[in-house]
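Sample A.
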Amino acid sequence: MTLLVALGSGDPDPWVKQFRVLLPDRPIVKLGDNYDPSTVEFSMTWYHPAGSLAQLPNLKAVFSLGAGVDHLFRDPHLPDVAIARVVDPDLTNRMSEYVMLHTLSILRQMRRYRTQQSIKNWSDDDFQPAATDVRVGIMGLGVLGSDAARKLKLMGFNVAGWSRSAKSLDGIQCFSGDAELSDFLARTDILIVLLPLTDETRGIINKNLLKGLARDGRVAAPSLINAGRGHLQIETELLECLDDGTLHEAVLDVFQTEPLPETSRLWAHPRVTITPHNASVSDPIAIANAIAAQIRRVEKGEALLNMVSRKKGY
C-alpha cells in the first residue's frame, strides 16, 4: 500500500516526511526512489512528469496537491483511476484572506496612497464609497468562491456570484451559464475570478468580458482580481484594458507563464499588483492530513470525497 509523492516542481521531502508521520504503517516514496511500481496504490501529485504514473498497475487514486486539477490533465498518459482534489479549511481560509485583503485595498484606494507616500503627497480629495455601495462579483462558486462570497458579504459588500451551472448561496444573488453572464458582469464593480481551468474557461478573462463590467458604479472604473488560473486571462487584452481605462486596477496572482517573465509589461504597470501564485499556499501539514484521511476512507471501503469529473475537468 505504497503512497507515491509525484512532484514535477518543488521539494518533495517535506511531504514525504509528513506522510511518514501520518501513515507510519506503509511505505512513502517519491519519484526517483527505488520502489516496486506494483505496490503503489495512491499518488499525491503536482505537475508530475507526463507518463510517470502510467506504469503503476495497482494505482487506486490520485490526489491533487492543490485545489486545482488542470495540471493533471496535461498528462496524456494519466491512468484511468479516481481523482480527488484537496478541500481543506487551511486552503479555503488562505484564499478568502487574499480576496478580502485585495478587495478592501481596492475599496480604500491603497494603491493611490502608496503612490502618494512615495512622492510625499498629502491628499485626500477623492470620494471613497462604502462597502455597501460597491458590487463585487465572484466568478466560480466552488468551495473557495463560496467561502469568499460569504465573508465579503459579512463585510458589507454587495456580492453576487456566477458559475457554469446553477448554484444557490443564502443571501447572495447567483447567476449561471452563458445566458446570465452579461447581466452578472453589468452589475459588477470588482470582479474576482476563482474559476477552474477547463476548455470552456480558458481565455475567459478577455477584452470583451472586461468591457462588459459595470460603468454606472460608485467607483472610477471596474477592477479585477484573478487568483484562479493564469490561462483564464489573455494578458495582452488585459493590458489593453488597463491602458485605455476599461479597468481601473488589476490584482494578479496567476499568469499565462510562471514565473512571470522579466520582459512582461505587467511588472511595471502602475495599476497592477502582482503576487507570485501564493494566494492560497499549500501547507504540508494541513494538506497531508487531508490526503491521509482520504486514504483511510478508501481502505475502510468508503467513497472518496471531493471527486473530480474528468468530463468537466474539475
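Sample B, a different protein:
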Amino acid sequence: MTLSYIISTLFYILPCFLLIILTFRDLLKLHHIPIIIFCVLTFSVVTFLSSSIYLRLNSSLLRTLVSLPVMLFGICLFCTLALYNFWQGIFIIALVKYYAENVYFLSLYLHFTITKIFPHLSGIKVIYTTIPLTLITFPLACVFSRRLLRPALDYTISLNIWRTMWMIPFCATIIQDLTVTPNIAGPYFSPGNAFFFVPPLWTFLTFTTYTIILRMIISLSKNAHLQETLHLSEIKIAAQQRQLETLQLYVEQGRRSRHDTRHHILAIRGFLEKQDQKGLNEYLNELSEHFPALPANYCEHPAINALLCYYRELTEKERIKASFSVSLDSQIPFSDADICVILGNFLENAVEACQRMKASEKYIRLKISIPSRLTLVIITENSYEGKIQRAQDGTFLSSKGKNRKGIGIDSIKHVIEKYNGISRFDYQEPVFKTFLLLNAKEQPK
C-alpha cells in the first residue's frame, strides 16, 4: 500500500465524513461515541480495501460494480446513526459520494489540462490539484448542504417523495463513472477539441439541477406551511366574527328587553295581585327563553377567548363533551398568536379525532394555567380510536394523507423551541394526552 494510494483515499473519504458531520451532527447519535467510532473505522477499512481493488481494474463497468456495495454499506451505517429513512439515506450518501468523486475527477481533469498527461488514479501528482479544489469547493458544499439539502429533507422527512428522488444522484454517479470519467484522457476531451469543456460543464449542470430541485421542494413545503398558517388565521377570524355576532345579538336583544321592561313589570304585578304563582312561573320561564345566553368568557385575551368559544360551539354541534379550564393573567409574557397556534392545532386535531370515532363517548378537556410568572402550562386530553402513527424523528403523521407529517405539528414545534419549552404525548386508546410547558424570557423593564 503506497503513500500516494493512502493519501488519495483519505482525500476522498475525509470530505465525505466532514460534510455529513457538519450538516447532520444534531441528528446523529453523538452520545453513542463508541458506535460512531466503530462505524467510521469500519467504513474507512472497507473503503481502503475496495479502493485497492478499484484501482487495479481497467473496466469502468467493473469499477462501478465495486463502488456500489461500498456506497450501500455507507448508507446502512448512516441510517443506523441518523434519524432519516433508507431512501433519504441513499439520496444523502449518493450526493455526498458524487461530490467527493467530482472533486477527484476534476483534479484529474485539471492535471490533464495543465500537463497534457493523464495521471494514474492513485498518483501522488494529482494531490497538488486535489488539495486546492477541495479547499475551494468544500465551503460551497457545506453551504449547499445546510441551506438546501438539510431543509429539503427536514421539511419532507415523512413524505414518499424520497422513494424516487434517490435515483437522481445515484444515476448521475453511475452515468459519470461509465461515460465521462473513462474518456477524460481521450481525443474528444483533449484541449482544443469542441468537447473539451464537457466534464466540468457536466458537473456544473448536475449540481445546478440539484439546486433547482431542492429549492422547489423547499418552496412547496413553505407554501404548505403558509397554507396551514392561513387556515389557522381563517379559524381565528371566524371565531372572532362569531363572537362579535353573538355580542351584537345580545345587545339587540337587550335593547328590546329594556323597551319591553315596563310591560313585563305590569304583567308580573298582575300575576302577583291575583296570587297566580303557577302562571307567574310559566310567564317567567317563557320570558327567560327570549334572553340570549352570554358568550363564554374564558380569559381576558380576545383572540384566545374567541378561539376557545369557536371550538366550544363546534364541539356542541358535533355532540362532543368539552371542558375548558383557563387561568390566565391579564398580562402574560407570551404572544397571543403563539398560544393560538398551539390551541388551534391541538383543538382541531382533537375535534377531528372525535369526529372519526364510532363510539358515543367523545370528549375534549383543556386546561391552561400559569404556575409562575414566566411559565405557561397547557394540558389537553381527548378521546380517539385507531392507531397513532409517528415518523422516525418522533413527529406525528397526519391522518389527512398517508405517511404525511402534520404541518400543524411543525408550527407547534416552532413555538416550543421559541420559548424553550418541553412537550410530552401520552396515548393509549381511547385517551390521547398532551402536556406542554413554555418558558418565557424575562422581559426588560
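Observation for Sample B: The mean pLDDT is 78.
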